[in-house]
């Protein structure tokens, strides 16, 4: 049975996430939230942050999933010595936070897991490309897809946090078909319609001059198979023109071959007005579309738009009443 709670792992204690959550809490929209929120973090740190930003809130101690009430905030306390924030202790704190969240999700599948940003280099230490891959491993999920979602236009890279010189050998029609099929299913389940999906080529102008012709051997055959499955996939399109206004307005999603091919234009167009959704896990995973931003910690200058969009998406499309 799925309940309507949202689990939030606050992430790195020196990131701007707590500030962003507090700013989201202070918006008028927060009162409209239809689900309970379970924060997994240091309760002492959380209360300290609320006090710093002069915000009063009733934080309830989490006891049981069956006792949760919508629009209420609950906390699972992960102890943390704030006076000695070494990398080792911060990494252990983040690890315990994820363990607590995943254990809770195993007991009762919630609406979603939202995780605050972490330092990938410090926490993952090269073992995983990103939190997407970390969660996929911990949940034994093989079919993971990154979707940067906006109501107007979303993007998805076939390869995620991969070095650019490794991209070509990691692209094949199976991955393209998997990505697009999962995105199509996600839109049908949560938004109620089949999206129009543009697929880019890999090379400039979709032309290969040396080596394997990826557009002809992998991308175009994948699109043909998807069309036979009644999925509205089109392309391949040149990545340097698909994001022009008159082109992108024809599509709900643009699927690219590598990370910056689609995320760069997406952030240029929408800024923080987008959320990072991982499709293919046993639960919906959402992450605000920004990093820890250590330099902004404590300055009260961070933009909460991405987290607000995450809550709005869940409120509008995921809560079953």
Describe the structure.
It is a single chain. The protein is built from 10 helices and 12 strands. It has 321 residues and is α/β, with parallel strands linked by helices. α1 links the parallel β1 (6-9) and β2 (37-41). α6 (173-190) packs parallel to α7.
Name the CATH superfamily assignment of the largest domain: Isopropylmalate Dehydrogenase
What oligomeric state do these chains adopt? Answer: single chain
- Main CATH class of the largest domain: Alpha Beta
What is the succession of H and E elements? Answer: EHEHEEHEHHEEHEHEHEHEEH
Number of helical segments with 4 or more residues? 10
Give the neighbour order of strands across the main sheet. Answer: 3-4-2-1-5-12-11-6
Mean pLDDT: 88
Query: How many discrete structural domains?
Result: 2
What is the percent of helical residues? Answer: 25-40%
Per the principal axes of the C-alpha atoms, what is the gross shape? globular
Q: Give the total of beta strands.
A: 12
How is the secondary structure organized here?
Blueprint: E1 6-9, H1 17-25, E2 37-41, H2 43-52, E3 59-61, E4 73-77, H3 87-107, E5 112-115, H4 120-123, H5 131-138, E6 145-149, E7 154-157, H6 173-190, E8 197-200, H7 214-228, E9 233-237, H8 245-248, E10 253-256, H9 259-270, E11 275-279, E12 284-288, H10 305-318
Parallel strand pairs: 1-2, 1-5, 2-4, 3-4, 5-12, 7-10, 8-9, 8-10
Antiparallel strand pairs: 6-11, 11-12
Helix pairs in contact: 6-7
């Amino acid at each position: 049975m799925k309940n309507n709670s949202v689990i939030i792992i606050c992430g790195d204690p020196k990131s701007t996430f707590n500030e962003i959550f507090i700013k989201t809490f202070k918006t008028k929209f927060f009162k409209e939230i239809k689900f309970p929120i379970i924060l997994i973090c240091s309760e002492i740190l959380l209360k300290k942050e609320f006090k710093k930003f002069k915000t009063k809130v009733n934080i309830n101690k989490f006891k049981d999933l069956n006792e949760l009430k919508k629009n209420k905030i609950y906390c699972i306390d992960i102890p943390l010595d704030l006076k000695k924030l070494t990398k080792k202790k911060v990494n252990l704190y983040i690890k315990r936070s994820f363990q607590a969240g995943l254990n809770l999700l195993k007991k009762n599948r919630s609406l979603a897991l939202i995780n605050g940003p972490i330092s990938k280099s410090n926490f993952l230490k090269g073992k995983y490309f990103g939190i997407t891959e970390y969660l996929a491993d911990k949940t034994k999920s093989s079919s993971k897809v990154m979707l940067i979602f906006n109501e107007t236009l979303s993007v998805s890279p076939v390869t995620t946090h991969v070095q650019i010189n490794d991209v070509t050998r990691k692209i094949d029609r199976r991955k393209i078909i998997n990505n697009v099929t999962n995105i199509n299913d996600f839109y049908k389940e949560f938004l109620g319609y089949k999206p129009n999906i543009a697929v880019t080529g890999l090379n400039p102008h979709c032309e290969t001059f040396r080596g394997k012709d990826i557009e002809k051997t992998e991308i175009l055959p994948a699109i043909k198979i998807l069309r036979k499955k009644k999925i509205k996939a089109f392309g391949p399109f040149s990545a340097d023109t698909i994001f022009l206004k008159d082109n992108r307005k024809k599509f709900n999603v643009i699927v690219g071959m590598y990370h910056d091919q689609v995320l760069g234009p997406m952030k240029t167009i929408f800024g923080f007005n987008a959320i990072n959704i991982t499709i293919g896990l046993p639960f919906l995973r959402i992450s605000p579309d920004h990093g820890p931003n250590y330099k902004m910690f404590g300055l009260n200058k961070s933009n909460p738009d991405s987290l607000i969009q995450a809550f709005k998406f869940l409120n509008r499309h995921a809560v079953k009443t």
